[in-house]
Fold:
Amino acid sequence: MIYLDNAATTFPKPPSVRREVDRCLRDYCGNPGRSAHALSLAAAEAIFDCRREAAELFGLPSPEQIIFTYNTTHALNMAIKGLLRRGDHVLISDMEHNAVYRPIWLLHAFGEITFDIYPTYPASPEADVEAILDGIRQRIRPNTRMLIASHVSNLCSAELPLTEIGALCRERGLLFVVDAAQSAGIADIDCGAMEIDALCAPGHKGLYGPQGSGILALRAGTVMATLLEGGSGVNSLDGAMPDFAPERYEAGTLATPAIAGLCAGIRFVRERGVGQIRAAEQMLYRRLREMLGNTKGVTLYAPEREGSTLLFNLDGIASTQAAAMLDKAGICLRAGFHCAPLGHRTLNTGDDGALRVGFSVFNRTTDLEALVRSVKEILRESHKN
Structure:
């Protein structure tokens, strides 16, 4: 089996991640922060270790700024619903995932907020950073409170200029929320330098942790309304949730085995080096772009944007049908609309979505060669019929 669906979740996980999850379940999986016995304290120490690793990776001065979530979607919902107020106006990009679009759409449908969509690179391939910033400036209103940016698209490899957007947000007094679903562990992220108020990241993608792990990294001093209330292990006699992070936002028992595995995944990424991981995946991207670009009957989308994800279609074959045929050949891709209709509309992929290749550090050029051979065989068979 050749796995090229790493934009959905990385697989396989590093051996160190598998070992740490197993060690947690065998040796120290008490309930963190709920008791004073040895297993509870060991679990709490493992949780803190992961906070520290994540804070250092994302340029945050304090581990307490790291909130653990179940995935990026959970983190984005917490940030969006916890920071917005009735009457606010929000700006989102034309490449956002449904993890952003749906909560924003729902708040708008309920009459709580209004929103506008600003254009990015894929909407106009010749656009530069200043064009994106101008598109944002033109849409800022007196009641605009928040701007949300998908750092790297989960469809193609288009990357937004976070440093410049963050500076604009700080200048205009806007909250800056970043969806790092496809960039955490692959692109350098410094929350301080990029003026990010809330960074939302998955544990199970570029950080190589288990599913069920995610991160919401908050700027120091940021206070949100809570999405969930319940036990936190502190101030148990109070009816209100604590007023300090991270306990304010982590109601109920944390997923200690997943967080332990995430800690090992972050260490794996930091040891490899984010820059080296990015370079290796860009090399795979360029190689596959060359091979598919020279294959008649293949359409590539935003191929000039090099990164960890490549989107394409086969002429006359629905993406879901092509993915099923590739699966029979032992190749795992994702087809359809990838929970990102805004991005597909921007890229003009058509009525059937598209096929997506997502790379990881464990992929090799032989994987790409096998994919291209299968693509050519599918195209040949379709032309016979």
